Amino acid sequence: MNILVADDELAIRSLVAELLEDEGHNVTLAEDGQDALEKFEMDWHDIVFSDIRMPKLTGIELLEQVKRINETTQFIIMTSFASVDNSIAALKKGAFDYILKPFEDLDIIAQTANRAIENLKDLREQEYLLNTLSRRNRELDGLNQKFREMAIRDGLTGLFNHRHAEERLSKEFERANQFERSLAVLFIDIDHFKLLNDTHGHQAGDEILESIGHMLNEHTRESDTVGRWGGEEFIVIAPETNEQEASALAENVREAVSKGTFPYVDQQPGGHLSMSIGVATNRDGVQDAVALVGYADKALYRAKEMGRNRTVVCRVDDHMEDISPR
């Protein structure tokens, strides 16, 4: 152990140092409190033996400074009978123990040092256990977060899964109605996806679905919720979005896919990948989130009927309008 001995009496500090060195410890000597503080700042010590009455800096003042620098350092006060009250005050400030001068039994020096060492080992063990527990708690929090993400994410595309998308849509619909705000839904289907699967296999289909998931995230907004509804169907929930804004968003997505480069699409109609999109908003008469998805689904079905690769908006009284340029 590295031990600092501070006493303004040369005979005392030399005696204590000799006794501790005989026990195998590395000992540094300081002739007063200020000297001790400077040496402690240069090299932290495990244990400090300090006289309570010293020039420049008292033992209690040194104790306060040492504990400020390193709280676990074991501080032992050396005092006379006349200063016992001050020693008790030092214990209240964090000193480990005090011993009385003159020393009636020199073994008290080594014994007190050994007890301080055991206490220091206990403190370090506690610190290690606390750090280990803290690290494992952080790891557990990370795993819990990962499991929460897994519970709400589609394993293939990384988008929100059907259940979570339904929950988000229900909450957004309630919020939009409560505050009389706009809400739009884009219902999306990849055109001729069965043909691609039948021609190139399901692994190729999965690669396309994964690519579409990335593109939907890239071409929607941070405020939008993008989910895989099932199979080759996707949903975009767009808060604070009116019909015109939703239509522009849908067309941005549709055109990005239509102009994108994908593998396995050489035998698709037109030689490229495309998608059909149905758009609906929470206009008057839309009762709930389920009805809103229903209107978007009707618009999507109409887009399929009209030849695919287009966006259709479902308006009041189920009027459908193809907004895609031709």
Describe this structure in words.
The mean pLDDT is 92. This protein has 2 domains: 125 residues, Rossmann fold (3-Layer(aba) Sandwich); 161 residues, Alpha-Beta Plaits (2-Layer Sandwich). The longest helix is centred in the middle third of the chain and has 46 residues. It contains 10 helices and 11 strands. With 326 residues, the protein is of the alpha/beta class. Strands 7-8-6-9-10-11 form a 6-stranded mixed β-sheet, sandwiched between helices. It has a 5-stranded parallel β-sheet with strand order 2-1-3-4-5, with helices on both faces. Helix 4 links the parallel strand 4 and strand 5. It is 51% helix and 18% strand. Helix 2 runs parallel beside helix 3 and helix 7 crosses helix 8. The protein starts with a strand and ends with a strand. The protein is rod-shaped, with a radius of gyration of 38 Å.
What's this, in brief?
The protein has 326 residues and is of the alpha/beta class.
What is the straight-line distance between the termini?
85 Å
Low-confidence stretches: none
Q: Measured on Cα atoms, how large is the radius of gyration? A: 38 Å
Order of helices and strands: EHEHEHEHEHHEHHEEHEHEE
- CATH topology of the largest domain, by name, is Alpha-Beta Plaits
Biggest sheet descriptor? 6 strands, mixed
How many domains in all? Answer: 2
Secondary-structure class: alpha/beta
SS elements, strand count: 11
Mean pLDDT: 92
Oligomer status: single chain
Q: For the record, what is the CATH homologous superfamily label of the largest domain?
A: Reverse transcriptase/Diguanylate cyclase domain
User: Helicity level, as a percent range?
Assistant: 40-55%
Strand content: 15-25%
Silhouette: rod-shaped
Overall CATH architecture of the largest domain: 2-Layer Sandwich
Tally of separate helices: 10
Q: Provide the CATH top-level class of the largest domain.
A: Alpha Beta
Spatially, the strands of the biggest sheet line up as 7-8-6-9-10-11
